[in-house]
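Let's do one together. I've listed all components of the complex below, 448 residues spread over two lines.
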Amino acid sequence: MKKLLALFLAMFVTATVFAEEVPDVLVQRVTEEVLDIVRKDKDIQNGHTQKVMELVDKKVLPNFNFTRMTALALGKEWRKASPQQQQQLTAEFRTLLVRTYSNALTSYKNQKIVYKPFKMAPADTDVLVRTEVQQPGSKPVQLDYSLEKVDGSWKVYDVVVAGISLVTNYRDQFNQEVRNGGIDGLIAAIAAKNKSLESGAKADKK
Amino acid sequence: MTRPFRSLFSGISRRALPLVGACLLMTAAQANDNPHDPYEGFNRAMYAVHEGLDKVIVKPVAQVYDAAVPLPAKAGVGNFFDNILDVRNALNSLLQGKPGDAASDVSRLLVNSTIGIFGLFDVASELGLERHEEDFGQTMAVWGYRDSAYLFWPLIGPRTVRDTGGWLVDINTDPTWGTTRKSVAVRNSLLAVRLVDVRASLLPADKVVEEAALDKYAYVRDAYLQRRRNQIYDGRPPRLDD
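Okay, and this is what the predicted structure of the assembly comes out as:
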């Protein structure tokens, strides 16, 4: 009975903590959890893409708002896309981003993440969490996350490396594809890119 | 005061001539839909030349360097050139009206050139003296020259018209380039080592661009423009509308 009560309490406490987790704490917790796994996993360090993608899928993605990311990447054209096109686009863009992000993780060595001081007003629903990647022998790299509060929980919608938004950096390329072949042309272009990366990854393993 | 400035500007005009000629040629290039990249036709051609040179010469050398030289030595080389660039950083911090940063850059230079043994060790950063990446292109932006057309130069890489001008000023105040007054051979060797060092440090980024980009040229261009904007605002650029 005592055990059950403790378990119940623990569950209750965790649930509350997660519901009220502030953005900077969320970023720090997820980063440290992921890096902890990467540090211990030889497969990931050796570039086992599939394994990293599983890790990213499980730990990182639940904290990302991919619909918002895709809308941000596309800009004004987003509203011209049908709900079904938006869905397809989000799915393809998500695959592309996950692969890029996963590959960045496999090159992780002994970098240290420093979390910059963070301030927000209780009413804020859109914030920037600033971190810095430090590596012996290299200059520190600025790594910032934009988060938005959706339905009471914070989700990342942009990742900015050294001032370069990994999301808006696609704006021009996406608009170019839309001009050439419409929204469907863009979906096809990203899908083709994903396919070529996937077959490339398979060829690497052989 | 006047003499260094006169030699600086005569230096610019001498080196700038071929570039000015190239710029004139470019105005003939096609108009394009990207407002930041009116010379896209020319730039794409230069990008192709750059990629070719990179594939055949620069990247293979950088790869050998990266694999053969142990990390502490590579860090020393990087620190050595970074230390020299603190001259540029201090000068431009001052020109941008940031005397505090300029003083800190000068302290960095003094500390690293002495305790850091000719800049091989970045002792100043360990002491908490943060590095400020400032150049004359950023200074001109702070002075009000914000938007500028994108340009791509082989070997030099992405710039804008403003940043190309800034770069010409920077190399005239850069002691590495300045060694030419003593020995062209020494200068060229130093510049070659620096190019290889910088290229080696960018090797991990290759794969990212290769995998992430639908169009590598556009990806590099937009990344450059975003990064410059971030540098101009010292890491805290105002938000753009979605």
